[in-house]
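The methods section describes the discrete structure representation at length, but only in general terms. The central task, working out the structure tokens from the amino acid sequence alone, is never made concrete. Nothing conveys this as quickly as seeing an actual entry. For illustration, here is how one protein appears when written out as sequence plus structure tokens:
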Amino acid sequence: MKEDFLHYLWRFQKFESQQLFTVNGELIQVISPGIPTSGSGPDFSNAKIWIGSTLWAGNVELHLDASSWYHHRHHLDAAYDSVILHVVWNNDVEVCYPSGSIMPSLELSKIISENLIKLYQKQFDQSPDWIPCERIFSNYPKVKWKNWIERLYIERLEEKVNLIFNLLEANKNDWEATLFQLLAKNFGLNVNGNAFLKWAQQISFSVVRKNTHDPIALEALFFGLSGLLNKEIEEPYYETLKSKYLFLKRKHKIPKNITVNVSFGRLRPPNFPTIRLSQLAQFYNHSPQVFSKLINAQDVKDLNWVLDIGVSDFWKTHFGFEKKGKSSSKKISKEFLDLILINSLIPIRFAHAKHHGLDEDNLLIQWMEKIPLEKNKYTDRFIRLGGEYNSALESQSLLHLKQYYCDKKRCLKCALGYHFFKEKPVI
């Protein structure tokens, strides 16, 4: 049994009996079950309920066990003082208001059909499939799908905002510095993302700002902070970077205890940290005020200037310091720009709008609809279930759906789960 099932029962009043009673025998008449809430605080707000001869207006809290009220320390939180009804599966203890009076409780285990419980468990809770509704996934009405994927995507952005706001606070509300750190993480990809973020956090962005006129100085900083200049290599360009890094380290008083290890394993040469760091240096040499450009962009195509970014001359003929190869510009690809947009530029613009009380949801959704679908094991699997998807809005939404709803069996908080379960007759 999960709390999601209780939410479903209460929200849609799926009770066999027309008459409900508190555990103390008072008649309950639900005028309105309230509005489901998210985040902290009671589960439903603005409910209207007759309990005995009194009409109450307030909040409703749900728990599997009544004792969770105390385990979750709600009795110490003033936000829960307005709860008018405690809906539980098992009323294992009496719950009291701070005044000492007993809180009205509705115990669901005694009034819910065994057949309804089995139906829920069979359809969602005990499903062995990749996703619980796999066998009926393609039956979800297409007219409802667009609204649901947009909501999923905004939820995914909300998740990413937490990291951005943490970085912003550490950077004393410097949005350019925060974007630099996000971009560093993005340029590191999955293999080196955390390592790139670590070195980017260890250096004041003011040092980067002061050297944006000199791409070789930026390369020296980025390579040095990434631990790629710690060897003895007889290569003139390597020695130039190492000498420049030691000079910049003294000049800007960069801490000596920065230790970051980057990896070349499981990467194609175009994604080697050497290439991505050179591109990042060229990126900031080309456009020192990246955040300003992002905020002023009216269309996602306004950011296509990123496709002009390549590498310094040395890296046009190298992937590593010691072996020369054929010359190529190694410009940022459209696929990599899409990753930057999805993982850095669009999330920070969303965070900026949220921070300033602006609503740019529709604009950013339009941007995501213009970015092609990401191809990965998740989108491939959903396509095999019968879906047709074209944009990054859908691929990001599907990833969120799988990770935060399907994998956690939060089916009755999912639009698909509600739809499919409601379509079944209550036996």
